[in-house]
Amino acid sequence: MSSNRGISAGVRTGELALERNDAGLAVVTISGEHDLSTAPNLRRRLDSLLDDGTATVVDLSPATFIDSSILGVILDGRRRAGEADIGFAVVHANGADAVDRVLEVTGLRAELPVHARREEAFAEASGSGKPAA
């Protein structure tokens, strides 16, 4: 049985992974294709982390496609984190051109900002949302 939500073994479409680094920072890695059908799962994951006051990095590097619904969830997460003074950052390191184009066309690469390296995103999120120098 195939699925567009990454349920079948080996399918990378719509997968979310959660890990925590040594500093307790949560990293939500988005792999494969994400759209309106996977946005609620991402929202639940980010809401849970932010409700717990957990500084969070969203890693778009393994994503092959994201649409405006995913961008909306990420922007809402960033807004909520900022209001609660919780660190939040986004990284897209050497990822798919399709995701890169969406970030550029929408202007979100600079707006969020989207970091080119995980270390930069970790530094921003660890500093309660303040960009690393």
What characteristics describe this protein?
globular; six-stranded mixed sheet; disordered N terminus; alpha/beta; 133 residues
Write the layout of secondary structure elements.
Blueprint: E1 15-20, E2 26-34, H1 39-51, E3 56-59, E4 63-66, H2 68-83, E5 88-91, H3 97-106, H4 108-111, E6 114-115, H5 118-126
Helix pairs in contact: 1-2
Question: Can you put this structure into words, describing what you see?
Answer:
This protein has helices spanning 39-51, 68-83, 97-106, 108-111, 118-126, and strands at residues 15-20, 26-34, 56-59, 63-66, 88-91, 114-115. It has 133 residues and is α/β, with parallel strands linked by helices. Strand 1 (15-20) and strand 2 form a beta hairpin. Helix 1 runs parallel beside helix 2 (68-83). It is globular, with a radius of gyration of 14 Å. The relative contact order is 0.16.
| Major sheet characteristics | 6 strands, mixed
As a percent range, the share of strand residues is 15-25%
- What is the general shape? globular
Number of strands: 6
Termini, distance in Å?
48 Å
Mean pLDDT: 86
Poorly predicted sequence stretches spanning 5 or more consecutive residues = 1-12, 128-133
Structural class: alpha/beta
What gyration radius follows from the Cα positions, in whole Å?
Answer: 14 Å
Helix percentage range: 25-40%
Topology pattern, helix = H, strand = E: EEHEEHEHHEH
- Give the count of helical stretches: 5
